[in-house]
Structures are given as C-alpha cells and as structure tokens.
Design brief:
Layout: E1 2-4, E2 13-22, E3 32-41, E4 65-71, E5 81-87, E6 94-98, E7 103-105
Parallel strand pairs: 1-7
Antiparallel strand pairs: 2-3, 2-4, 4-5, 5-6
C-alpha cells in the first residue's frame, strides 16, 4: 500500500498497520490477521514480513486469497489486493507472495 495524507502527499513517520487475508474479495471474515504497531513509513511506503508474528495457518494459500490493509484507526483500504504465488523452479511449494501496491489515501 502507498500511504498518503488528506492532501495526497506521501506519509513519513510511523503507523499501526493491520494486514488481513481473506478468501473473498469483498466482505467475509479474515482467515488470518497480523497487526504491526509503530511500522516505519518512508515516502508513503512501508515494508513488513507477513507471518513472522502470527504464523499462517496450514492451507491458507491453497485457495484464491485477497489482502486487506488497515492503517491506524482508518477503515480497511479498498479494494482488497489479490495475492498470487509462483512456484519455485523445480519445487511445487510457493516461493513468494506478491502484493501489488496501490496508490491512495489511507
């Protein structure tokens, strides 16, 4: 997610970020969620390693998945972003999950 203030300017500082994974694009109940307090934000961009605090449940990525992001006390950003995985060469396990950034106010 690309975080901006009410004037469209990129945010610098810290934010509390909650990331959730759903099996539906709209509505539903989060299948996994993790909150990071005091996340560093530089020029509107932050980076966190998902699953390092709250482990992913088995089978979470064996179905279509969408990522929801909530910053501080704001509502969850819309639309949710689809998560896709690519297998490692010669291995059937997912190598990396790619989350596409979205520009917009948080």
């Amino acid at each position: 997610a690309y975080l901006t203030d009410d004037n469209g300017l990129p945010i610098d500082g810290t934010a509390d970020v909650t990331v959730s994974i759903y099996n539906v694009e709209v509505g539903g109940v989060a299948l996994w969620s993790e909150t990071r307090t005091g996340t560093a934000v530089s020029n509107g961009v932050f980076s966190i390693e998902l699953g390092s605090i709250v482990p992913f449940p088995p089978g979470l990525f064996e179905m279509p998945s969408w990522l929801g992001v909530m910053v501080d006390a704001d509502s969850e950003m819309t639309p949710r972003r689809p998560i896709s995985s690519r297998p490692k060469y010669g291995n059937r396990r997912p190598a990396r999950y790619v989350i596409l950034p979205q520009r917009g106010k948080h």
